[in-house]
Write a structure and sequence with these properties.
The chain has 299 residues and is of the alpha/beta class. It is 58% helix and 17% strand. The protein has a 7-stranded mixed barrel. A hairpin with a 2-residue loop joins strand 5 and strand 6. Helix 5 crosses helix 6. It starts with 6 loop residues before the first helix and ends in a 9-residue tail after the last helix.
C-alpha cells in the first residue's frame, strides 16, 4: 500500500498549517483570551493613559485597558484581567510610565490574602505616579516661583541698602549697637555678682523668717480673736446704752420744764442755780473755819 502524499496535498497541508499559525499569532497579539473578567479602577488623574495600554503585575503583562470614563469627580478605568488572577481587598493600582518619556501602564498590586478576597464589582483605588513630563512641568512652575522670589529679594536688598546708606541711620545703628554692648557687659557683671551670692543660704534665711512669722501669727491668733470678741461685746454694750439714753434725750428735748430741761435751755434758771451753788460753797467754807450754829425745833 502506498502511503506517500501527493505534492498537491503537501502544499495544502502547509498552507493550512501556516494559516492556523497566523490566526494564533494574531489572536495572541491582540490579547484575546477566553474567560477574561472586567475589573474597574478609580483615579483622580489619568494623564496620558489610553485604551489598550497594558496592565502589569510584578512586571508581567496580564491585561489591558478596555475603557476610560468620567464619573462625578473620579475617572473610571475598566480593564480585562485573567480570571485566575486573585485580587484581595487591599489591592491597588498605580499609573506609571511604560517607557522613557512615552507610553503609560497600570501597575497592579493584587494585595494580601489576610485581607480577604475582593468582592465582585468592587473598584480598586488607583494612584497617579508623577513622571518626567509632570516633573518638568513642576520644575517650570518652581523656576517661575524662584524668579519671583529672587526679584523680591533684590528689591528688599535694595531698600535695605538705601536705608543703611543713610548717615543718620548708620549713626543711630552704631549707637544702638554700642548700647547693646554696654547692656551685655552690665548683665555679665550682674550675673557674676549673683553667682557670688550664696543663694542657698539666702533661701534658708528666707525660709526661717517665713516660719517665724507663721509661728508668731499662730501664737497671736487666740489673743486677736479674744480682743475681737471683747470689742464686739463693748460695741454691743455701747449700742444698748445709746438705746437707753436716746429716749431720755428725746424727753429732755421735748419737756423743757424739767430740771434738766431748764438747766439746758433756761438761761435764767441756770444763772440762779449757779448763784445758789456759789453761796452754798461760801457757807460751807465759812462753816469749816468758824463752825455753824444750828437751831433746830422739832415740836
Amino acid at each position: 500500500m502506498d502511503f506517500s502524499l501527493s505534492k498537491e496535498l503537501k502544499v495544502g497541508l502547509t498552507v493550512l498549517s501556516a494559516a492556523v499559525i497566523l490566526i494564533y499569532v494574531i489572536w495572541w497579539g491582540k490579547d484575546v483570551k477566553v474567560g477574561t473578567r472586567q475589573v474597574q479602577f478609580s483615579f483622580r488623574n489619568v494623564s496620558g493613559l489610553q485604551i489598550g495600554d497594558p496592565v502589569m503585575v510584578s512586571g508581567l503583562r496580564v491585561g489591558k485597558v478596555e475603557s476610560i470614563s468620567f464619573s462625578e469627580s473620579l475617572v473610571i478605568v475598566s480593564a480585562s484581567l485573567p480570571p485566575e488572577l486573585e485580587l484581595f481587598k487591599d489591592a491597588e493600582v498605580k499609573l506609571m510610565m511604560y517607557e522613557l518619556m512615552t507610553g503609560k501602564k497600570l501597575e497592579l498590586i493584587p494585595g494580601t490574602r489576610e485581607w480577604g478576597f475582593l468582592e465582585e464589582g468592587k473598584m480598586i483605588p488607583g494612584y497617579f505616579v508623577s513622571d518626567i513630563p509632570e516633573l518638568v512641568g513642576f520644575a517650570g512652575t518652581t523656576v517661575d516661583t524662584l524668579r519671583l522670589l529672587l526679584s523680591d529679594m533684590q528689591r528688599t536688598l535694595s531698600n535695605a541698602n538705601r536705608i543703611l546708606g543713610d548717615d543718620d541711620m548708620a549713626n543711630d545703628l552704631r549707637l544702638t549697637l554700642r548700647n547693646m554692648r554696654q547692656i551685655t557687659t552690665d548683665l555679665a557683671y550682674v550675673s557674676r555678682d549673683m553667682r557670688s551670692v550664696k543663694v542657698s543660704e539666702l533661701m534658708g534665711r528666707l525660709e526661717s523668717t517665713v516660719n517665724s512669722a507663721d509661728s508668731f501669727m499662730r501664737e497671736l491668733k487666740p489673743e486677736v480673736k479674744s480682743s475681737l470678741e471683747e470689742f464686739r461685746t463693748t460695741a454691743r454694750n455701747i449700742n444698748e446704752a445709746i438705746l437707753v439714753i436716746k429716749p431720755v434725750v428725746e424727753e429732755i428735748k421735748s419737756n423743757r420744764k424739767s430740771v434738766i430741761g431748764k438747766l439746758m435751755y433756761d438761761t435764767l434758771f441756770a444763772s440762779r442755780l449757779e448763784s445758789a451753788i456759789v453761796q452754798l460753797d461760801s457757807v460751807l467754807k465759812l462753816g469749816q473755819d468758824d463752825g455753824i450754829k444750828v437751831k433746830l425745833k422739832v415740836f
